[in-house]
Design goal:
Layout: E1 4-10, H1 22-31, E2 36-42, H2 46-55, E3 60-68, E4 73-77, H3 89-98, E5 102-105, E6 130-135, H4 142-154, E7 158-164, E8 174-177, H5 183-191, E9 194-196, H6 202-217
Parallel strand pairs: 1-2, 1-7, 2-3, 5-6, 6-7
Antiparallel strand pairs: 1-8, 3-4, 4-5, 8-9
Length: 246
C-alpha cells in the first residue's frame, strides 16, 4: 500500500500562538499532497477534533495535544479527551497512557522558549514512546542533534516535528509511514519511517521574532488571526503553566 505522507506537530488557531485555520490546513494538505496531519494544539484537542470533522476521507487526522506540564511540554497522541495542563511530567505521561495514547517528548533540548523538558526528560524515560528528533523551529542544529542522541541511546523511534504556527509552513518536514490504524501500528510505522528533514524558512523565523516582540516585548497583544479559536475571545484562555527550573 502507498505510504502516508505524515506531518507531525501541527498547530491550528485553537492554539493561542497559531494563525492556521482548519480550512487553511485542509487546503495546504491538498496542495502538498499530505495524507495525514498530527494535530497537537497547546492544552486543547478542540482544533484536532474540528479538523478531523472537516477533513474528509482523503486526509487522516490524529488527535493530539501539546501539554504544558510543570517542567516543560509533552505531547499525547491518539487522545480521547484533553489532558489537564500543569501536572508533573510523570503524572501527565500516565494520564496519556490511561487513554491508551502515545507519549512523545517534543523539542526536548530547545532552550529559547523555556518550554522544553531538558534534563527532566530522563525522569520519565520509562513512560516515553517516541522522541521528536528534529523540530523545524530549531534555528540551530544542536538541540536536534541532542534529541536524536537521546532517541538512539534509549532505542526510541524518532519523529520530525514541523511545529508550524504561521500559514504556509506545514510542509517544511514530514515522514512517510506505512498505513496504520491506531497507536500500536503507528508506533511500528514510525520505527520504519522514511524521514524528509527540513527547517522553516528565514521568513518564518522573522515572523516568529515579530510575534514574540509584539506580544511579550511590546505588550501590543496578539495579531489578528492568531488564536482566533483558542478561547481568548470567550474569556476562557488561562496562562500556560510556567516550567519549574531548579
Amino acid at each position: 500500500m502507498k505510504p502516508l505522507k505524515t506531518v507531525f506537530h501541527v498547530h491550528t488557531d485553537y492554539s493561542d500562538d497559531s494563525e492556521n485555520s482548519v480550512d487553511h490546513l485542509i487546503e495546504a494538505a491538498k496542495r502538498y499532497h499530505i495524507d495525514c496531519l498530527v494535530v497537537t494544539d497547546h492544552d486543547t484537542v478542540e482544533g484536532a477534533r474540528a479538523l478531523a470533522e472537516e477533513a474528509g476521507p482523503d486526509l487522516k487526522v490524529i488527535i493530539g495535544q501539546e501539554i504544558s506540564t510543570s517542567e516543560g511540554h509533552l505531547i499525547g497522541l491518539f487522545l480521547r479527551e484533553a489532558v489537564e495542563p500543569g501536572m508533573s511530567p510523570r503524572q501527565t505521561a500516565k494520564t496519556i497512557k490511561d487513554q491508551h495514547g502515545l507519549v512523545v517528548v517534543p523539542h526536548p533540548f530547545n532552550i529559547l522558549f523555556g518550554c522544553s523538558l531538558r534534563d527532566a526528560v530522563y525522569d520519565i524515560i520509562d513512560l516515553l514512546d517516541l522522541v521528536e528528533i528534529s523540530n523545524a523551529q530549531n534555528l540551530l542544529p544542536y538541540p536536534n542533534h541532542k534529541a536524536e542522541q537521546l532517541a538512539r541511546r534509549f532505542g526510541f523511534p524518532g519523529l520530525l516535528g514541523v511545529d508550524c504556527h504561521h500559514q504556509d509552513s506545514v510542509n517544511s518536514c514530514y515522514q512517510y509511514l506505512a498505513p496504520f490504524d491506531g497507536p500500536a501500528s503507528f508506533l511500528a510505522a514510525v520505527s520504519q519511517a522514511r524521514l524528509v528533514r527540513g527547517r522553516h524558512s528565514l521568513g518564518y523565523f522573522f515572523r516568529s521574532g515579530w510575534f514574540v516582540a509584539r506580544t511579550k516585548g511590546l505588550g501590543l497583544g496578539y495579531p489578528d488571526g492568531y488564536g482566533r479559536n483558542c478561547g481568548r475571545s470567550r474569556g476562557q484562555l488561562q496562562p500556560r503553566p510556567v516550567p519549574v527550573r531548579t
